[in-house]
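Students often ask why we bother encoding 3D structure as a string. The short answer is that it lets us treat folding as translation between two languages. Here is a chain of 415 residues written in the first language.
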Amino acid sequence: MKRVLLLLPVASYRNEDFLAAARRLKVEVIPVADYCPRLAPRWGLAPLFAVPFDRPQVAVEIVLAHLRQQIDAVLAVDDHGVELAALLRERLGLAGNPPAAVATLRDKLAFRQLLAREGFNCPAFALLPEAVDPADWPARPAFPVVVKARRLSGSRAVVRADDLRGFLAAVREARRIQKRADREAKNLGLVVESFIPGREFALEGLLTEGRLTVLALFDKPDPLDGPYFEETIYVTPSRLPEALQAEIAHTVEVACRAAGVATGPVHAEMRVNDAGVWLLEIAPRSIGGLCGRILRHCLGMSLEEVILRHALGEELPQPVTTGGNGVMMIPIPRRGIYEGVTGLTQASAVPGITGIEIAVTPGTRLLPLPEGATYLGFIFARAPTPKAAEEALREAHARLCFHIRPEVEIAPAGR
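And here it is in the second language, the structure alphabet:
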């Protein structure tokens, strides 16, 4: 039986989907999790369940010190573990992408520097150090600009600003979020870049010896023009002309080669306008959340099973384009405490809707973008055309009513 070391962040949506895929393939999983190192021992958890994914150089030593089995592959289920997975593959002598290449793709500044150096379409950009006053910073690109935390994913701490007042507010907000979310925030600074106009798309693919196989190209039909960049609907197959789809795939493949990434899943985000394809980011992992479930129809199996097969060198399916498939990541409309949802029966009855999964439980504290890192849930659709799938998602979402009460602010004693 083949054995996979699987990095499973406690907060990931995708843990169960990867574990289910491993069971179908009869693959033994050695799980590694990121429970709190102080609490895990009290709960009787093994050291491999208390690994700091955000400190990969420390984490790799913990894993290697407690690993007792021979491993055939190492996989991170989402963004949190990709650097640690790369280090583990290197130390275990397994095939994979160099840790430095993975780190380049995770760092928005390093990725922008790569694009500029290699001659890709790239906006004007600059690093705003943590200690620099943005009001007196001469390197800022012309407005409108986008302020970005360097290593957060899912549009966290990404804010558009159209004037100086908005820019100063965006910097304050992004710095606050990055400080809470990244232990190295004081050494990172923020990326500030010119806003790129155009429609946004996403590509899901697999690299094999540097060659890209496109599993899906997603349209994002909602405009993503800021001030925040909350993604909602993904629909595939794309309605772009074939030539433009080929240009997107070629651009992603060449950029991966330039970064030194040659194997495994990649998820790329890009904008397209009259000047061509503008890469926003390439992540050395598969699509996040539960969005990958909509690919089952064109892959003939789950995306997680495809990724496991690829990592283990097993035969892969050929993607087949049939009908339209879509997913809506249900956005969090406002800060507050989640109490429940009504309208699920009505939403599920919309023609084309194949499933609705609510990902939060009553009592959950909700934080919208640019601070939050979660969604209320996911709506899935399958229809004869991409347009019909998109329309089904919008209709189902309109029938849902989420009940969110405001947070209660407790006044200090004596007031």
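Translate back mentally: Residues 44 and 56 are 23 Å apart (CA to CA). Keep this in mind for the problem set.
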